[in-house]
Amino acid sequence: MSELWRQRWLFLNFFKRELKSRYSGTLGGGLWALGQPVLLLAIYSFVFRKVFKVGFPELGEHSFTAFVACGLWPWMAFQEGIQRGTQAVVGNAGLVKKVMFPHELLVFASVGATFALHFTGFFVILGVLALLGEPFSFAGVMVVLGAWLVMLTLACGVTLLTSAAQVFLKDVDQLLGPILMIMFYITPVLYPISQVPESVRGPMALNPLVHVIGPIRSSLMQGVASGLGELAGLFGVAIVLVVVARGLFVRLSGYFEDFI
Amino acid sequence: MSAMNDGQVLIALRDVGKAYPIANTAASRVKTLAALLMRRGFPESFHALSGIDLEVRQGESLGLIGVNGAGKSTLLKIIAGVVRPSSGQIGIHGRISALLELGAGFHPEYTGRQNVFLATSLMGLSERETRACLDAILAFADIGEHIDQPIKHYSSGMVVRLGFAVATAVRPDILITDEVLAVGDESFQRKCIAWMENYLSDGGTLLLCAHSMFHIQKLCQKAAWIHDGKLKSYGDSHRVTREYLAWHDARNAPKAQDHAQAVKSGNYALVSMTLNGQPSHEGAVLSMGDNLRVGGRVFSPDGRTPTVIMGFVRKDGMPIYGVSSEMDGYELCRRTANEFEFEFELPELSLLPGEYTVKGHALDPEGYRLFDELTSDLTVVGECRELGVCRLPHRWNIV
Q1: pTM here?
Q2: A66-78: per-residue pLDDT in tens?
Q3: B110 contact residues in A (CB cutoff 8 A)
Q4: Nearest one of A14, A166, A201, A252 to B84, comparing CA atoms
Q5: What is the Cα–Cα distance from B345 to B275, expressed in whole angstroms?
Q6: Are the C-beta atoms of residues B160 and B188 closer than 8 Å to each other?
Q7: What is the ipTM of this complex?
């Protein structure tokens, strides 16, 4: 831990580099980070509101668009964070082969940068929707921040494992695509958990993201802080995951140079 | 650096070895990954280094020499901490700055200035510390306005300048450089060498890997010769570099005793060669204008007709003429199932008086691969006032 603290300047540099290089050379710059999820949001709104004409009691006075927005940004951060972060070690082969530094910084910087972008995008979209008359409650914003932190910790833990494995097995990246796609549909981003049949709800509760997106929604849409216990428990699990994953990562990191 | 006593051991390697995994198939990669997670070694491995014992004290300079692939870079990487050794112990005391590849920490889209901050943070410097030595870095690199251009537009020499400038800025306890002197231009090389000499006289410790024996002798008190992953010789740099060069010469020189081995190992081999009937090792003395007949016997492992090349070079190595049997459409005569004979004649030798070497090479039938070589001294004597190496057919015309 103290080792990581001493390397904070390096982390900061990696982090800045991630942010800059991601959209450098593009005209849109950081707008691309916002643009992609907004486009998705527009499509989902069209398909589900205009075509399927969905409606459920949880919406209350909110629009379906606002409902999806609350879950979509955290999900995008999680998915993109893992997918980009998995390439963090392999993508910096030049550094890993030639310079000594804690390799996990690359992973943290990559996941962190993705989260920073989507976190910003999240509040921009909430602000825009609120201006358009969406009655969000911002009283429970601390719960939302906490939920994002849990999400970030989870993503870091997973990515430490996938990025190390990716060095040895290029299949990891290929596998992640379909796995994350399935995960998207079993995570209540497009629907509330209450609409899921009773019999499936038990197994679905095993998906940690259920317990992150739930509190975000309830605090923003209903102004109620619910599921805080689960969230805190999940944070503990996420911390353990990061510690264990980092242990395994460090065990493998000495051999990255051999395989990369 | 100042806090350290003179002569303190900064780098200590005990029986250090490095094995690289042999994992080419997906299955073996999975197996290796599992083995590493269980903290076992590699299932299959190739030993790049083994049994290296080395000690470098404060203020010492050590040069690493050896042929390509001997393990020099692996050893430097182990000391720099980039590679984890698979056996043995390693102790490092002091701040290391390693230039394993110039510009390794650089990002192509970044400007030179931004890259300086990235590179120094890789060495553990904070932003403020970097700012403090930024001027010194820029002055050393001396690339002017380009510092605010993206690195991708730099020439390789400019990248080298910047990389070395960053490495020198932190004034490390131990400086490791791998073949970096070879890249910069003449004046920058001189600047680097001057910096290193100054650094050494201030008590710095240097590990240098170079193919230039001149640099090793100039900068290093000691040298270590790595051969096939083992420490072959270690000690005074002049002695070790001499040994190494002698070994190199011997390796490159044609070896008579190799013919038996070539035949044994099943390669095409020039078994013997004669010059006007004299065996090749005796050489021949001829007068200019004499006939020269080169005869030879060639071993063919598979009974196919080999190709032979005849070459003539001046004593100092300058090539004069070479031709192969395949070019002339000449077929060697079969003597036994695996032995062939040839005779090559130069009527009225047009070489001017002097010392020459006649070279015979045995090749496969296709003439792709050169397997074996025999050489013979040829002395041409005679009275002659012509200039050059050989007489060209000519005439003077009446105009």
Answers
A1: 0.72
A2: 999 999 999 999 9
A3: 17
A4: A252
A5: 10
A6: yes
A7: 0.74
